[in-house]
Design goal:
The chain is mostly beta strands. It contains no helices and 11 strands.
Length: 119
């Protein structure tokens, strides 16, 4: 089991930017695909972006606005979010992936980080 700790959320106006960070434990971090998911109030948790050592994938709703990256030396994953929209408001979570496509999370969920975008 790997623990993830998400941070970097906050309140931002539409059109603004935020950078989320995920610190993960575990010596085998670099061997796993990692992903960001989000859950808006009253909605199911949904996939946002994923990354392996060689590729990235994005949900259609964030393509061209969000960028996922990782630093294996730091056991960290990041999500740069630009041109934020009110519909991006959600709690954001990171997780290892059991399967890359479709993305199936592997571990239990952390506490997440709240992103609120005002119009």
């Amino acid at each position: 089991q790997v623990q993830q700790v998400e941070s970097g959320g906050g309140l931002v106006q539409a059109g603004g930017s935020l950078r989320l960070s995920c610190a993960a434990s575990g010596r085998t971090f670099s061997t796993y695909a990692m992903a960001w998911f989000r859950q808006a109030p009253g909605k199911e948790r949904e996939f946002v972006a994923s990354i392996t050592t060689t590729s990235t994938r994005y949900a259609d709703s964030v393509k061209g606005r969000f960028a996922i990256s990782r630093d294996n030396a730091e056991n960290a994953v990041y999500l740069q979010m630009n041109n934020l929209k009110p519909e991006d408001t959600a709690v954001y979570y990171c997780n290892r992936l059991q399967y890359y496509n479709p993305p199936v999370p592997r571990d239990s969920w952390g506490q997440g980080t709240q992103v609120t975008v005002s119009s």
